[in-house]
Design brief:
Helix content: 55-70%
Largest sheet: none
Number of helices: 7
Length: 106
C-alpha cells in the first residue's frame, strides 16, 4: 500500500448521474438534430450544464472546478485544456438563445 500513489484524481459520481439524466432527456440529440450545433459545441454545453448542476458557481469558478476537481470532460468528450470562462459564457448565451425551443422539446 505504501507504493500506491494517486495522481490527478477527479470526482465522477454526481457528474455521471447528471450525464445519465442529460442523455435520457435527449438534449444532445436536440442540439445536434434540431439546432444543427457542431459536436464540439454540444460537448461544451453538456460539460457546462453538468458542471453547473454539480457545482453551481460562476463561469470562472466552474472553469477551476472542471480543471481541478471534475471528470466531466472525460464523460462528455470535451478537451479539458480548451475550457475557458469566455467559452462557457459564449455557450451559455447560445443555450439561452434557444431556451424556448429547448423547454418545448423537454
Amino acid at each position: 500500500m505504501s507504493s500506491i500513489k494517486n495522481k490527478d484524481a477527479r470526482e465522477i459520481g454526481a457528474e455521471w448521474l447528471s450525464k445519465q439524466a442529460f442523455d435520457q432527456l435527449g438534449i444532445r440529440n436536440f442540439l445536434a438534430n434540431e439546432q444543427k450545433w457542431p459536436q464540439e459545441d454540444i460537448s461544451l454545453a453538456e460539460a457546462h450544464i453538468i458542471s453547473r448542476t454539480v457545482y453551481p458557481a460562476s463561469e470562472l469558478k466552474t472553469v477551476s472546478f472542471i480543471k481541478e476537481n471534475s471528470a466531466v470532460c472525460e464523460l462528455t468528450g470535451y478537451d479539458r485544456d480548451k475550457v475557458t470562462k469566455d467559452k462557457l459564457y459564449r455557450i451559455s448565451h447560445r443555450l439561452y438563445a434557444i431556451k424556448d425551443q429547448l423547454e418545448n422539446y423537454l
